[in-house]
Structure formats: structure tokens, C-alpha cells
Amino acid sequence: MPTARQLLAEARPLLAATSFGASPREARLLLGYVLGLSEARLLAREEAEVPAGAERRFRELLARRLTGEPVAYLTGEREFWGRSFQVDPRVLIPRPETEHLVEVALAERLPEIPWILDVGTGSGILAVTLALEISGARVVATDLSPGALAVASRNARRHGARVRFLGLDLTAGLDLSRFDLVVSNPPYVDRSEIPEISPEVLDFEPHRALFPPGDGDSILERLFGECAGLRSGVALAVEIGRGQLDAVRRHAGASGLEVAEVRVDYTGIPRTVVLRRP
């Protein structure tokens, strides 16, 4: 039987040679997942032999990774705001920049028992995180995808978060005047960007959650129009795409909203926008 060190030595150059730039470190993540070991524990046991069944499973996962399938889908997990969330191909994989929406939400002055709406919840990372981080919060989350709602509900149960999930198109049928905060990470990628998108994303993540119908800002425009029903001063915090800030300002103005704050992501791109109705 090969040792863990031998399997890792075999896998690392294969990952490094991928066209999409997989990290050699992923070999340790996948082997640790198969063996039920953290990276630190695997490092301490690299000379141990790997049982045949575990070796076979590792090689299967490695082969899938070499085709571009994301590690998060292979392991079924991705961390967000210090918690592990379950993910599968029905939902987008959480990105670090989406944590800016949590930062914005936690900075808001909210009532003692706030009503919070997460529009297009996906895996439920925002809804679950805000339900846990904001004491007394009553969180409602919407999504059109039954598969996404199933994943989100599972994540809420996993973390003991009280969230009401609704199968809705954006905010359809909701009385927005009752909410004290609205957050959303909607589909915003324009199809003109497809040639620039990694195969890890394009070939495996759900297109419905990436690309809105029409232009990249079409869902944002609809959402802003619906959020004209917010009470004065209530924040709508959204994640936007590269180069969309001017369109956001234009759509906001047409909907009677004002851009109150813009936050850049880790690469310096305007990514999180806070809007309010005067």
C-alpha cells in the first residue's frame, strides 16, 4: 500500500499542470477528506500507509478535480464566516468577497428584533450567518430554485439557525415595508464575460445563479425597483459585478434609491453596495 506522502507526491504535479491553475495543496485537502483527517493531522501521518479503499477514493476524486470540478463540490463543504456550509452543484460555491455583505449587515443600526430578508439565498450562507450573528433576528430567505432551497434548509438545520425559506422570484408577494434590512447576492455576470470565466465555474456551477436573463445588471434593476417599497432609511446591501457601479447608480436613481456606501473587494473592484430610500 502506498503511503500518504507517495500519493501526495504523485498528485501535486498533476494539479500544478492543470490549465485552470489548481493548487498543489489541494492534494492534501482531498486526501485528508478521504481519510477524515485535518491537514495538520495528515501532515503528521504522511508516512502511514493508505488503505486500498481510501486510495481508490482519493484517485477518483483527483481524477474529477483534474477535469476542473471544484474541490468544494468534491468534498461537499466550503467555509464562510468561520462556519462550514454544505454545497453541491445546485448552488454557487461561497466566495470570500461575499463576507463583505455580512460586514455591512453587522454595521447596521437595527431594532432589537429586526426583520431581515435575503433575496436569492442560494446555499443560505447569508441568511444562516445573519440569523446566528444578529441576536433576535427574524430572517426570511427567498430563491426560485427548489434545489437551492433544499441545500439552504439543510445548512440552517446544521447550524441551528431559524430561517424561513420561501420559493419566490426575488421579493414577489412580500410586504417589504416590514423589513429592517435586505441583503442579496443575485446573478450578475454578463454573458459577454464567458470567455474569461474559468472552466471550474463555467462547466460546474449553476448558470441560473451566475447569469441573469438579459444584461448582467438586469436582476439588479428588477430588485431595485421592487425595493422601492422599503421604508425610508432601510438598507439594501447587494453584491455587484465588475464594472457595474455606474449601472447600479442609474438603476438606483430610477427606483428612488440612493447609493449610500460602496465597498471594494480584495482585488480593489467595487463589489458591495448599500442603497437606501431617502
Description:
This protein is α/β, with parallel strands linked by helices. It is built from 12 helices and 9 strands. The protein folds into 2 domains: 4-68; 89-276, Rossmann fold, CATH 3.40.50.150. The protein has helices spanning 4-16, 26-35, 39-44, 52-66, 71-75, 99-107, 125-133, 146-159, 199-202, 207-210, 218-226, 245-254, and strands at residues 77-80, 83-86, 115-119, 138-142, 163-166, 181-184, 235-239, 258-264, 270-276. The chain has a 7-stranded mixed sheet with strand order 5-4-3-6-7-9-8, with helices on both faces. It is elongated and about 65 Å long. The model has no long low-confidence stretch (mean pLDDT 97).
**What is the overall pLDDT average?**
97
Please give the order of strands in the largest beta sheet: 5-4-3-6-7-9-8
Uncertain runs are none
Please identify which CATH superfamily of the largest domain we are dealing with.
Vaccinia Virus protein VP39
Number of helices: 12
Radius of gyration: 21 Å
- Measured as a percent range, the helix fraction is 25-40%
| CATH topological fold name of the largest domain | Rossmann fold
Strand content: 15-25%
Secondary structural class: alpha/beta
What is the makeup of the main sheet? Answer: 7 strands, mixed
**Tally of separate domains:** 2
**Total DSSP E strands:** 9
